[in-house]
C-alpha cells in the first residue's frame, strides 16, 4: 500500500513524431494509452504499443515492463475520423428497469477505467466533508418516490460501505441515479458511457445535496430551517458595484452566495491566493442612471461569511469554438497547504475572526516553544473541551457561535485535491487525493495508496502530469 509516485519519462514514436510521456508505473496500460490518446488522437483501442513480450494490453501492470527513463516505444495506429453516431443516443430514463440493468452490465474494465473516474474522484474528495453522513441520516430521508432523495440516500449508503469494507465498492445505484437526474452523464459514444467533467459532476452532486439534506444544530441534530450545503459549504459575499466614470453616483450593494471560488489561470505563474483576491474585483459594463449611457463599473466583493469547507476551482478548461473542444490550460497553479482567508473578508467579519485566529496562533507558537523547552502550563491549556464553550471562552462573536457550519477563524487546511491528466475535460483521467487520519491517500478508482505530503505539491501543474483542478479546504480545528 505504501507506494509513492513512480514516474518515468518514455518517448512514444508514432507516425514519424516523438512524444514525451510521463508514465506512472503504478498504473495499468490503459492509463498510458489514454495519455497517448490525448497527445495523438489515436483511440486507445486502436493503439498497438510494442513492449517486451508483445503488444501492451489494457490491464498490463506498467511496473512489470521494466521501462527505462527515456526508453523509446513504437506505437502503431491511426486516428479514426469522427463518424456520426450510428444510433441516436439512448438515455436511461427512456429504458425499462431490465434494460437499465443490462446497460450497466457493460464489461467492468471499461466502465471503471475509462468512464467513471470523474465520479469516483469527486466522491472520494467529498468524503472529506465528514459531517455529511450525519446530516443525511438526521434529515431522515428515505428511499422514496423522489429521485433527488434517493440520490442522497444512496450516496450515504455508498460512503458507509466505503468506510466499512475498505474495499472497492461498485456504486451502481448511485451512478444510475446520477445519470437519471442529469442525462448528460448518460452520454454515450461507441465505447459506452463517455468521460465527463469532474467539476460539473461535483457541482451537480452539491446541488442535489443542497436540495435534499437539512442542516445541523451545534449538538449534531437536524435543523429543518437550514440546508446542510448552505451551512457547511457556502461562501457569502457583499458586492459593491461602483461606476468608474461617475464617482458621485452612489454604489449599489448586494449579497451573493457561492459554493466554490473560481481561480483563473494567468499567463505566467499563478498563485492561488493572489488569484482569489484578483477574482473578487471585476469590471462590468452596464447602464449608468446618472450618465444615461452604458459605462464601466467596478464590482468589488468582500467575503461576509466563510463556511467550514471551502471549494476552490482552477479554471483549467476553455471552450474553443473553432475546434469544438474544451481545451486545457496546463500551466502551474501554486496552492498552499494552509490558507488564511481573512485578507478577503469585510471589515466586520475580519474583526469577528480575530479571537479564534489569535487562539490558533497561540497554539502554533506554543507548539513551537514546546519543542525548545518543556514550557510551563499556559492559560490556553485550561480551555473547555466542548467547542461551543471553547468559542465562548475565547470571546468569539455570538453570531459565529450560533452558526455550526461556519469557519470562526478564517484559517483553513487543505484536505482534498482532485486532479486531471490529459488534454480535454471529456477525456483523460481523474484522481482524488485526500487527507484521512493524518495521511494523504491517492484514490485512483479502485486502487488506493498512501502517499507523501510532498507528492501533493507535484500536482501544481505545468506539464503533462496530474494537474490540480479542484481543491477542498477545511476549517482548522481549535483546541
Ligand atoms: C470507481 O468506479 C468503478 C466503476 O463504477 C467501480 O468499479 C469502482 O469500485 C469505483 N471505485 C471506488 C473506490 O468507488
Ligand atoms: C422515513 O421512514 C421512517 C420509518 O419508516 C419514518 O419514521 C420517517 O418519517 C421517514 N422520513 C421521511 C422524511 O419521510
Ligand atoms: C427510489 O428507490 C426505490 C428503491 O430502490 C425505488 O423503489 C423508487 O422507485 C426510487 N424512486 C425513483 C423516483 O426512482
Ligand atoms: C436552526 O436554524 C435557524 C436558521 O438559521 C436558526 O435560527 C435556529 O436557531 C437553528 N436551530 C437550532 C436549534 O440551532
UniProtKB/TrEMBL annotation:
Please list the residue ranges annotated as the Ubiquitin-like domain. 7-76
Database matches in SMART domains: UBQ
Q: Where is the USP domain?
A: 108-476
Question: What GO molecular function annotation could you give as one example from this UniProt entry?
Answer: cysteine-type deubiquitinase activity
Q: Which InterPro entries has this protein been placed in?
A: Papain-like_cys_pep_sf (IPR038765), Peptidase_C19_UCH (IPR001394), Ubiquitin-like_dom (IPR000626), Ubiquitin-like_domsf (IPR029071), Ubiquitin_CS (IPR019954), UBP14-like (IPR044635), USP (IPR028889), USP_CS (IPR018200)
Q: Which residues form the signal peptide?
A: 1-18
- Enzyme Commission number(s): 3.4.19.12
UniProt keyword annotation of Signal present: yes
The protein here is known as Ubiquitin carboxyl-terminal hydrolase
Which species? Boothiomyces macroporosus
